[in-house]
Amino acid sequence: NRIHMIYYTNEDFKHSFNIEIIIKNLDIFEQLKDVNYYFAGGFPAALLLAPRSNENPDKIEPKYFSDIDLFFPTEEDFKKAQNIFRGNGDNSRPGGLELLVQADTENATTYIYWKNGIGYNIQLVRKMFLTEEELINTFDIVNCGITYNYNKKQWTSHALFLQSNLNKKLTLNNPVMLNEDYPDYPNTIFFQL
């Protein structure tokens, strides 16, 4: 059951320079130029759609995303990124990031950094190693169905991503709670918008 995807480059968006500035504020991503990774879900959606701060147009209003999820197509890419994020054993990292917390679970390694008075929660996801298209197929909600590959400067989205968000319409995409393979999920769903 394949979902139609749409691919964009930064040139497709008039504010792509703004997206680049926001990501470059976190210099550690420049260190990942030899790693195949991509952002997925809330962070790339916020890069594209969220309002910018009144004080600093190069900063997304903080309430529009809570963490930055990095996904990898292979375990090898995950391990390369993890070595870069772990740094040299002290709390300093490339780009002046100060490591506050590192937490490992079977699903992800989470790093909480501090830079210029701003906290960043960055998760390296190891639960699954998928292409952008495969990952978007797993999303319950179309409105989060977008990825951004920083090294390739390429966006991949569910075909209904922009339409659903611009129309402020919550669109389901094969939600697990309605899938008959998961009978333990409740039959009634409440959405609070």
**Percentage beta strand:** 15-25%
Uncertain segments are 185-193
| Residues in helices, as a percent range | 10-25%
The structural class is alpha+beta
Radius of gyration: 17 Å
Helix and strand succession? EHEHEHEEEHEEH
Please outline the major beta sheet. 8 strands, mixed
**N/C terminus separation:** 28 Å
Q: How many beta-strand elements?
A: 8
What integer is the average pLDDT? 80
Shape: globular
Number of distinct helices: 5
How is the largest sheet built, in terms of strand order? 1-8-7-2-3-6-5-4
The protein's oligomeric status is: single chain
Key traits:
193 residues, alpha+beta, 8-stranded mixed sheet, 5 helices, 8 strands, 22% helix, disordered C terminus
Describe this structure in words.
The chain contains five helices and eight strands. It is α+β, with helices and mostly antiparallel strands and 193 residues long. An eight-stranded mixed β-sheet has the order 1-8-7-2-3-6-5-4, with helices on both faces. Strand 4 and strand 5 (108-115) form a beta hairpin.
Question: Could you give the topology of this structure?
Answer:
Blueprint (H helix, E strand, L loop, with lengths): L4 E5 L6 H9 L13 E3 L1 H8 L18 E4 L3 H12 L11 E7 L3 E8 L2 E8 L6 H7 L7 E4 L4 E5 L2 H6 L27
Parallel strand pairs: 3-6
Antiparallel strand pairs: 1-8, 2-3, 2-7, 4-5, 5-6, 7-8
In short:
With 193 residues, the chain is of the alpha+beta class. Helix content is 22%, strand content 23%. Strands 1-8-7-2-3-6-5-4 form an 8-stranded mixed sheet, sandwiched between helices.
